[in-house]
Amino acid sequence: MGFVVPPDAYTRFMGRYAEPLAELFAAFSGVGAGDKVLDVGCGPGALTAQLLSLGAQVAAIDPSPPFVDAIRARFPDIDARRGTAEELPYDTAAFDAALAQLVVHFMADPVVGIRQMARVTRRDGVIAACVWDGPTGALAPFWEAVHLIDPDAEDEALLSGARGGHLSEIFEAAGLRDVDERALAVDVVHPTFEEWWEPYTFGVGPAGDYVHALDDDRRAHLESVAREHLGNGPFTVRATAWAARGMA
């Protein structure tokens, strides 16, 4: 999976959606000033930045070394570590909340990951996660173009949490209480087709892996089909995510 990439590549690829989503997701989680919060799968820090702006005390963890280095450079005063959701290196009940933005669908075992998030959160603390909806998420326009020429391509719609109700199922299987799920949507304006397309060539995530696996002719064909599908720009992508929260 293509996440050992330069942080700037990830930011240009997903940050344009993750940053506005972080504002909605943090509000949904109910985190506020003074709360001790763990950002699980922090990436280069879209959610961390939002939580800090709210006055939360943030710790962050991610399995990608470049992302951990980037978040340490960006926020030198926070505890940033390399690690996975399934093996969180923190004491039990160490946090008031544990949040995972755009991470659950890439966990090796989402139930174990959410259970670990609950373990490190105090009793009655908040565990929350969000995942792009498969058919209407941030990457849907890309996969729509792919399916026009490769109908059998496996996109991200089948990943954990990418359909309504699945995050709730994962949370309940992990033993969380009072689980609530809802849709969050952000509108992102792309001024040109090129601004939208170029980050897909950076090798980030499943979409980047797919583009990198194409030869030059097939990559050019996909670009042409995507341009015909979306237009030259400007155009707006409405990206919908499923968000769930529960109590430890």
Automatic annotation (TrEMBL):
E.C. number(s) listed in UniProt: 2.1.1.-
Coiled-coil residue windows: none
Keyword field: Methyltransferase, Transferase
Pfam families: Methyltransf_11
Broadest EC class assigned to this enzyme: transferase
Domain spans labelled Methyltransferase type: 38-128
Domain of life: Bacteria
InterPro entries named among the record's database cross-references: Diverse_substrate_MTase (IPR051052), Methyltransf_11 (IPR013216), SAM-dependent_MTases_sf (IPR029063)
GO molecular function (one): methyltransferase activity
Biological-process GO terms, alphabetical: methylation
Family listed: Belongs to the methyltransferase superfamily.
Protein's recorded name: Class I SAM-dependent methyltransferase
Source organism of the structure: Mycolicibacterium nivoides
